[in-house]
Amino acid sequence: MDQTIERKKVSLQVLEHLKVMIQQEPYVSGGKLPSEMELAERFQVSRAPIREALTVLTATEVIESKQGGGRWIKNIKLVDMLDHIKLGMVSVDEVHALLEMRHIIETEAAALAAERADDAEIEALHKSLIAFSETILTENTIGSEADSHFHLVLVKAAKNPFLTATLENMKGLLNDAIEFSLRLNVGKTEKRRNVYQEHEAIYEAIAAKDAQAARKAMDIHLTNVRKKLGDTRLA
């Protein structure tokens, strides 16, 4: 198991080795994982790709942090599902690139929606916001479908068929990326409320026909998402 990781897609390779390691004793059934430093020494990489791979496993509920320090395997049944981790097979760099693309597209889409949305589209956006707000009421609800629906309704309101087609063609991947991000907030009421408030600010700016405010609100929202997932391109 103690082997050097190749430099190409380091975080993804670390993730694959961690997934194998987690299925072996003594790590199954609630076992404690080695520290970030120990894992970095084992794989002979820096701590950054270790931390990125652990973020994937935390977001997909395979491991958890406990009071007093350390990361632990949550449940053997979840370990059996390791091969089905949706974004576990996508490198963290690719997740960051996807979010960067969303940031570029959706900040301007929000501004266009503020300028072009008709009353019916604003009402549809409001309904999608209400649906998203309802996911906040249940602590263990992720809410990724409601979140991605809000963003798709918004892009449609920008009235650019190519923007809409781009987002619709990537709907599955975008939903997985949103789910990946929102899983980090499960059980964290304040953070979940903050995410909702960011969406509410976007809606209010569009409803007020304020393109500049809509652009800014979307920029704040997607910047926070990227920061949460450790995108160093923002530094």
Relative strand content: under 5%
The first-level CATH class of the largest domain is given as Mainly Alpha
Q: Report how far the terminal alpha carbons are from each other.
A: 34 Å
Order of helices and strands: HHHEEHHHHHHHH
Mean pLDDT: 80
- The neighbouring-strand order within the major sheet is 1-2
Low-confidence runs of at least 5 consecutive residues: 76-89
- Helical region count? 11
List how many beta strands DSSP finds: 2
Percent of residues in helices: 55-70%
Mind summarizing the main beta sheet?
2 strands, antiparallel
At the fourth level of CATH, the homologous superfamily of the largest domain is GntR ligand-binding domain-like
CATH architecture identity of the largest domain: Up-down Bundle
User: Radius of gyration over alpha carbons?
Assistant: 19 Å
Looking at the structure, the CATH topology of the largest domain is Four Helix Bundle (Hemerythrin (Met), subunit A)
The rough form would be described as elongated
Count of individual domains: 2
Structural class: mainly alpha
Mind explaining what this structure looks like?
- This protein is mainly alpha-helical.
- It contains 11 helices and 2 strands, in the order αααββαααααααα.
- It has a two-stranded antiparallel ribbon with strand order 1-2.
- Helix 5 packs parallel to helix 10 (189-207) and helix 6 packs antiparallel against helix 7 (144-157).
- The two termini are 34 Å apart.
- Residues 76-89 have low confidence and may be disordered.
